[in-house]
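Re: beginner question about structure tokens

> Can someone show what the tokenized structure looks like for a real chain? I only ever see the sequence side.

Sure, here's an example I had lying around. Input first:
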Amino acid sequence: MNIFCKLLGHTWVHKSDDPKIAWNTTKDMAELAMTAEGEPRFYEQCARCHEERDLPRRAKAAPQG
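And the corresponding structure tokens:
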């Protein structure tokens, strides 16, 4: 932990890590299909000391109407 984080507190910045994307051909070899290796990760990182904390998952919004 940085001395400034101890004195002033962390400065949290929103970050995300995208999964690697692979482009593969379909069975008929005519189109490219995108496949991802995982889910994107959303987290916060301190701008000073680079400490990370995960963000809580959002609840799905109820349909309107």
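Each token stands for a local structural state, so reading them left to right follows the chain. The chain is about 10% helix and 40% strand.
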